[in-house]
């Protein structure tokens, strides 16, 4: 599986960005896609996830109500709509895929940088 993240950039606080993650390769046993982020000097943290089958979503508290994760199964693509961005959202955002029966995410994309200016 290959994951290609895109859509990062520079935006002012209060603005919006939409990230995309295109998945290619195996399509069986795919369970969910997740977005994670890592700010400079900080550990990587979970942002949101969505299941391929029924679109069930889950969000970290610090993005709930501001970020929306969605998927397009026909395009094998997952999106992260980020609204009301804050400077503390600045980070490299990675998408990842988890297979059925696995406890951890199996595949990771290269990341896309989001910078929110105050």
TL;DR?
This protein has 118 residues and is mostly beta strands. The chain has strands at 2-6, 9-12, 17-24, 30-38, 45-51, 57-59, 67-72, 77-82, 91-99, 107-108, 112-117.
CA radius of gyration: 13 Å
What's the overall geometry? Answer: globular
Spatial separation of the terminal alpha carbons = 37 Å
- Quickly give the structural class: mainly beta
Provide the β-strand percentage band. over 45%
Determine the fraction of residues in helical runs and give it as a percent range. under 10%
- Largest sheet features: 7 strands, mixed
> Element order, helices and strands?
EEEEEEEEEEE
- Please work out how many helical segments DSSP would assign: 0
Number of strands: 11
Average pLDDT taken over every residue: 95
| Poorly predicted sequence stretches spanning 5 or more consecutive residues | none
Note down, in words, how this protein is organized.
The structure is a single chain. With 118 residues, the chain is mainly β. It is built from no helices and eleven strands. It has strands spanning 2-6, 9-12, 17-24, 30-38, 45-51, 57-59, 67-72, 77-82, 91-99, 107-108, 112-117. The strands form two sheets. Strands 2, 4, 5, 6, 9, 10 and 11 form a seven-stranded mixed beta sheet that branches. A four-stranded antiparallel beta sheet has the order 1-3-8-7, with no helix packed on it. It starts with a strand and ends with a strand. The model has no long low-confidence stretch (mean pLDDT 95).
